[in-house]
Amino acid sequence: MSKEKTQRALKDNEAKAVARMLRVSPQKLNLLAQLIRGKKVDRALADLQFSRKRIAFDVKKTLESAIANAENNHSLDVDDLVVAEAHVGKALVMKRFSARARGRSGRIEKPFSHLTIVLREVAAAAEA
Q1: Which CATH number is correct for 14-122, 2.60.120.460, 3.30.70.560, 3.90.470.10, 3.30.450.20?
Q2: pLDDT of 126 higher than 70
Q3: Residue 125 pLDDT greater than 70, yes or no
Q4: pLDDT tens digit string along 69-83?
Q5: Please, are residues 89 and 116 in contact by the beta-carbon 8 Å criterion?
Q6: Residue 44 exposed, middle or buried by CB count within 10 Å (0-12, 13-18, 19+)
Q7: What angle do CA 80, 85, 89 make, to 5 degrees?
Q8: How far apart are CA 43 and CA 58, in angstroms?
Q9: Banded pLDDT at 20 (limits 50, 70, 90)
């Protein structure tokens, strides 16, 4: 009498990982998401390894998590994985105030972001 299992949102040849509440603006995070979108995972990992952006470490960690999900949970071949989607969403924005001249205050916004990475297994013949 248990509840039915929910259908999987992704296809059988896909796996995903989500990083929530990353302390970076969505605009800056999207630069790295564009960098890895559509690439094979080994190439994307190498690009993130040598990126000079601070948030590249967290993006790399999320990509590695998606690879582990694909391998362990969905039995996909790691060598055939491609970054199908890498999209960024807005999260909350912390508002802070800083003292300015003549008794005024300036508003400082500290945005957070969400990152979703979806990997897809492609046939090796199609890649060549």
Answers
A1: 3.90.470.10
A2: no
A3: no
A4: 999 999 999 999 999
A5: yes
A6: buried
A7: 150
A8: 17
A9: very high
